[in-house]
Amino acid sequence: MMQKCQKKRGQFPLISVVLFVLIIFSILCIEINIHKIHQIQPQPAHTDQRQSSFDQEFLLRPSALLNQTLSKTPPPVPLNKSSTCSSTVKYSGRRVFSTVRTPEHAGRRDQPEGFDLFSGKWVFDNTSHPLYNESDCPFMSDQLACHKHGRPDNDYQYWRWQPHNCNLKRWNVTEMWEKLRGKRLMFVGDSLNRGQWMSMICLLQSAVPANKQSITPQAQLTIFRAEEYNATIEFLWAPVLVESNSDDPVDHRLPERILRPDSILRHASQWKHADILVFNTYLWWRQGPVKLLWSDEVSGVCEEIDGLGGMELAMEAWADWMASNFDFLNKQAFFVTMSPTHHFKEEWEPGSEGNCYNERQPITSESYLGSGIHLPTMQVVDKVLTRLSSKVVVLNITLLSDYRKDGHPSIYRKFWETLSPETLSKPASYSDCIHWCLPGVSDVWNELLFQFL
Ligand SMILES: *[C@@H]1O[C@H](CO)[C@@H](O)[C@H](O)[C@H]1NC(C)=O
Ligand SMILES: *[C@@H]1O[C@H](CO)[C@@H](O)[C@H](O)[C@H]1NC(C)=O
Ligand SMILES: *[C@@H]1O[C@H](CO)[C@@H](O)[C@H](O)[C@H]1NC(C)=O
Ligand SMILES: *[C@@H]1O[C@H](CO)[C@@H](O)[C@H](O)[C@H]1NC(C)=O
Ligand SMILES: *[C@@H]1O[C@H](CO)[C@@H](O)[C@H](O)[C@H]1NC(C)=O
Ligand SMILES: *[C@@H]1O[C@H](CO)[C@@H](O)[C@H](O)[C@H]1NC(C)=O
Ligand SMILES: *[C@@H]1O[C@H](CO)[C@@H](O)[C@H](O)[C@H]1NC(C)=O
């Protein structure tokens, strides 16, 4: 079914790794200001039954472990950006759940036998792509509008993904809307997933009249509505899936990351009403250790764990929620695998310096595997998703996106802080090699999603 990765990755000196982590950290910090995208067409927020009470949720939950926790201690104080640890100890080895339960009647949705949509190559095709024009999308984020911000070439818009053993069904905006009729499609995750959400809106909005569409920015949840189809396309900011001190979509530039590995309900109570869910989580776990504050910890003692270990706990909590609460028969869930970064040009052009800045062509070598792909993370994702018996469909965009060193904004996006002349004179030093220009790579992720709906 899924193709195994036989590709070997190169060795990179420790200094590269340290540099990589620093760059990621600095770019994620820049995120603080991307809330500007929410400042479009504000509408009164609809507060319907969706915001159900946390406590009620908690009591209804069939998990014996949480039930136990609850009966002994009052519900924990919700984490926010002012939360702190009274002290920090080493991770104790505590797990969230011992097993992931899977309902037996649940439907299984694999890709058709013999078709691996995710192994293939990029084909230059300026007749079929881009699927929309940057300037025609009124909701476009200044973080992703590369042409508007001075990118001299449009080449990154013209690539089509061609799987080796099959053809993708052609993107059809009418057909997509029909699939979404009467439904809520929700993206849940970090800024990469927000990029995919924005791509989806840009792909779809042209087919509905401007006066029959609206966007409702809320703190955490942003909702695009299309009246004609009674459908919504939503984005929920939940960068580590579980509850954390970074759940403010705007202000999360924090010296330490604190999360509650056993608390998924802050976010699940919002996403549980969606019909189609698209999850991701990755880069937030690549910034060094995180702190765990368990729900039954009353004196504020945190446990410190490395990012990967934290990710595994968070994904287990998520998988447990999915296995015990998600209606796989009538709904669909997707997990988008890690989105690779391109911080080291020497990886695709040995002996050179720099990063994705000025790159205009995809990588053509199919055996390419950059250090922006963290293999241990891939293994954790594989493990957790396997325990869900493949019922969550994997959008395995990692390798195909790894070829697209040309697809990042680099310096062609809005930067919220003022850049000094010295910084400006070294474009590579502030290039964004994490996110993706639109139209571009994220549109193709959505074309892949379209194949499974
Ligand atoms: C994604 O694809 C890679 C490369 O083919 C593979 O190693 C990995 O196991 C896949 N991940 C999942 C979750 O299927
Ligand atoms: C949760 O606790 C209540 C009372 O403390 C008990 O009646 C109930 O059976 C427990 N539920 C589970 C799933 O363990
Ligand atoms: C954050 O939580 C603390 C309790 O831990 C509370 O006193 C404070 O008002 C909260 N701050 C915000 C901005 O919500
Ligand atoms: C497509 O690309 C070809 C080759 O670069 C070029 O000759 C042609 O003018 C392009 N067509 C469009 C519509 O951009
Ligand atoms: C983009 O705009 C150009 C010229 O304004 C037009 O020819 C082209 O068809 C548009 N493409 C799409 C996908 O709407
Ligand atoms: C797109 O889908 C609609 C509705 O399913 C169909 O009527 C139309 O023919 C399709 N268009 C193309 C170009 O395939
Ligand atoms: C719109 O969709 C919702 C489900 O998302 C459904 O409950 C409602 O009845 C629909 N309304 C109409 C007018 O079809």
From TrEMBL:
GO cellular component term of the entry, any: membrane
Domain of life: Eukaryota
Transmembrane domains' residue ranges: 12-34
Domain called Trichome birefringence-like N-terminal: residue spans: 116-167
Keywords for this protein: Membrane, Signal-anchor, Transmembrane, Transmembrane helix
Listed InterPro entries: TBL (IPR029962), TBL_C (IPR026057), TBL_N (IPR025846)
Keyword Cell wall biogenesis/degradation on entry: no
Compartments where found: Membrane
Topology of this chain in the membrane: Single-pass membrane protein
Domain Trichome birefringence-like C-terminal per the UniProt entry, residue ranges: 169-451
Family indicated by similarity: Belongs to the PC-esterase family. TBL subfamily.
Name by which UniProt lists this protein: Trichome birefringence-like N-terminal domain-containing protein
Record organism: Cinchona calisaya
Native organism taxonomy: Eukaryota, Viridiplantae, Streptophyta, Embryophyta, Tracheophyta
